[in-house]
Each structure stands twice: as structure tokens, then as C-alpha cells.
Design goal:
14% of the residues lie in helices and 39% in strands. The protein is mainly beta. It has one domain: Beta Barrel (Lipocalin), CATH 2.40.128. Strands 1, 2, 3, 4, 5, 6, 7, 8, 9, 10 and 11 form an 11-stranded antiparallel beta sheet that branches.
Length: 197
């Protein structure tokens, strides 16, 4: 006669393990794969004690994100700024969480001198928000390019499916840059980002 299974064990074995926050976060963005959305700047605060730059690369330009490529463990999301199609955010699942890299290209498709910088999540985050403190590779790159101001960067993203997506850059100096995208109204697919097919 077979012994009866332990009811606690049986119940546990039938319960689904909840997805890690990083997986749930990627899945929320991937729900919009193939779609593009228009954004607007909601914060563009310069560092404390500094005036805004005379010419800003983002102000007054049409901002569009396109969830273009979705594979297991990786998303590629071009960020179009007016007629500039040089930027693509690459989100990759790692053993520890998520990695964000900024793939920058010049118009002929070759790498920009400053490309593939970013950071890795150093805490689990949530399915809504993930933060990416600058990594050492990027710090070295910024120092080599004379961009010491960027060595304290932290990027963040938020996703509320069907509602909004947020991209954020912050620094301890008080610098804050946020672009919010309206996920309720898809827009026409933008051109292919530079360097992609």
C-alpha cells in the first residue's frame, strides 16, 4: 500500500514559483513588442548651481521609443530623438538581475566613440521599476572621454503596461532627466535605428 503524500508537500509542489522581479519587468515591456510610443520630458533638472545648457539634445524634439526586438532574456528598444536614430537601449537578463546598455551609433551605422555604456541592477527592484548604477566599464569609458560628470550616473526604468513607460537619469549632483512615454496610444513605427537592419 502506497503511503499517502504529505499534504504540505503536495500543496507546495502544485504552487507556481513567482517570477523574479527582473523577469516580470522584462515581460511587462515585451508585452508591447513591435509597438512604438511617443514621449515627453517631465523633468530636465540641471546639476545644483548650474544653469540649463544653451542647447539641449532632447528639448523641442519628437521623442519615440520602439520595442523593436524581443528575445528570451534580452530586449532592444531604440530611442529616437527627432531625426537622430543613434540610440538603442539594450536590456539583458543576468544571473544577478538586469543590465542596461546604451548602444550609440553614427549615421553610417558604425559605433559612436561613446557606446555600450550603462549599468547593472544591484538590488532586485520590482516588476514596475529597475535601477542601474553605472558599471566600472562605463566609468572607465567616461573618464577616457573626458566625461567625468557621468561617472556617478544611475539610470532607471519604470513600466506600467498599457499606461506608461519612464526612462530616468539621475546623479547625486541633483541632475535629473525623465522622459515619460504614453503606452495607451501606439504611434507609427519609426525608421530603422542606425547600424541595425
Amino acid at each position: 500500500m502506497r503511503p499517502e503524500a504529505d499534504p504540505v508537500e503536495t500543496e507546495a509542489s502544485t504552487m507556481e514559483t513567482p517570477a523574479a522581479p527582473a523577469d516580470a519587468f522584462l515581460a511587462r515591456i515585451a508585452q508591447h513588442c513591435g509597438q512604438a510610443f511617443e514621449g515627453r520630458i517631465i523633468d530636465n533638472t540641471p546639476p545644483r548651481g548650474e544653469d540649463p545648457p544653451a542647447e539641449d539634445a532632447f528639448e523641442g524634439r519628437r521623442l519615440v521609443m520602439h520595442v523593436r526586438e524581443c528575445s528570451e532574456g534580452e530586449l532592444k528598444v531604440p530611442f529616437h530623438v527627432g531625426d537622430n536614430h543613434s540610440r538603442t537601449w539594450i536590456l539583458t537578463r543576468t544571473n544577478g538581475g538586469l543590465r542596461l546598455k546604451h548602444d550609440h551609433r553614427v549615421e553610417d551605422g558604425s559605433d559612436d566613440p561613446l557606446t555600450m555604456y550603462g549599468g547593472e541592477s544591484d538590488r532586485p527592484g520590482t516588476e514596475v521599476r529597475q535601477e542601474f548604477p553605472v558599471d566600472q566599464e562605463s566609468i572607465d569609458m567616461f573618464n577616457e572621454q573626458g566625461l567625468e560628470v557621468s561617472v556617478t550616473n544611475t539610470w532607471a526604468m519604470e513600466i506600467e503596461p498599457g499606461d506608461r513607460f519612464l526612462y530616468e537619469l539621475s546623479r547625486p549632483s541633483g541632475r535629473m532627466f525623465k522622459v515619460e512615454f504614453d503606452l495607451t496610444t501606439p504611434v507609427d513605427t519609426p525608421p530603422t535605428p542606425w547600424g541595425y537592419e
